[in-house]
Design goal:
With 302 residues, the chain is of the alpha/beta class. It has eleven helices and 14 strands.
């Protein structure tokens, strides 16, 4: 599985360009970047933002994104390392981009996803751009780099071969700036094309399980902490508890078991029935999404 890593920490992204909440077209810049990855079929999207990143989190908290936090003065490579350390056992490769490059195309992402080599870099008319793709077997070399050459220096020092992919996409080069007009890019951009967006929910008396609840369960299982799961989703702990309470009320059985802190510390664990629900929901969504996408393009061929 290929993941995506968006660097939105204050020092490394938006420091001289548009803030993440600034709208480009009808949506904020960060949400545009997230949607591009998701429309290309990348389900696991991670955003590295500053420790006090509440405003950033709110921009995409409903898009099933994982938020990781870094100090506000973090260098770019430090933020990248935070993301790679989290993703190294969760994907086969990851796309990496700064959050102020929201105009690359879905076709470019697909070209990178099918490319060979440890590192793939898009190129437009001889100029290198973003995002770049790094395969998981190369993560340790970058994580162990202690030089001052940034991400490019880490790649070069590790001897990783870069595969340059020529694309017909000027968007890989376009950093957002406050004083520029992006209307022409927006009008021709990939997100202007119609696309089916499915959010499957399970309902009894009330809708109790959908993408948000599923992500909460996944992150709780991953972290053994409901509080940390909520933090990574960019939602309050109270909201997370309310989501679980509704699920358990509708299902009639516990999906998460928690123990309060003490000498041994507290934890939250997904129950066996909770894991079964997650597995069935994932399988259903995968099959239903494939069928409905084919149906959409049959009904809406243009």
């Amino acid at each position: 599985m290929i993941a995506a890593l968006i660097i939105a920490a204050a020092k490394t992204a938006y420091s001289e360009g548009l803030p993440p909440q600034k709208e480009l077209g009808a949506i904020p810049a960060l949400q545009r970047t997230v949607m591009l990855f998701q429309r290309a079929g990348i389900e696991r999207v991670v955003v590295v933002c500053e420790e006090d990143g509440e405003k950033t989190e709110k921009l995409a908290s409903h898009r099933n994104v994982v938020f990781l936090h870094h100090r506000v003065d973090a260098e770019l490579l430090d933020s990248v390392k935070t993301g790679l350390a989290y993703l190294q056992d969760k994907c086969t490769a990851t796309m990496i981009t700064l959050a102020d490059l929201p105009f690359f195309s879905i076709d470019t992402l697909r070209a990178l996803m099918s490319a060979d080599g440890p590192v793939s870099v898009p190129s437009y008319e001889g100029k290198d751009g973003q995002p770049i793709l790094i395969h998981a077997e190369s993560f340790p070399a970058i994580l162990s780099y202690a030089g001052e050459g940034g991400l490019v220096g880490a790649i070069e020092a590790s001897g990783l071969r870069r595969n340059f992919i020529e694309v017909d996409d000027e968007g890989i080069l376009i950093h957002t700036k406050d004083d520029e007009d992006y209307a022409a890019y927006i009008a021709e951009h990939s997100l202007r094309q119609s696309y089916p967006d499915f959010r499957f929910r399970i309902v009894r008396e009330k809708a109790f399980y959908g993408p948000g609840a599923h992500q909460l369960m996944q992150l709780t299982e991953e972290t053994n902490s409901l509080r940390e799961a909520c933090r990574r989703m960019g939602i309050s702990y109270g909201k997370g508890r309310a989501i679980l309470s509704l699920m358990e009320q509708q299902l009639g059985y516990p999906v998460v078991e928690s123990r309060q802190g003490g000498s041994a510390g507290g934890y939250s664990a997904v129950t066996d029935k909770g894991k079964e629900l997650m597995d069935r929901y994932s399988a259903y969504c995968t099959e239903a999404r494939a069928y409905l996408q084919d149906l959409f393009y049959e009904v809406f061929p243009d």
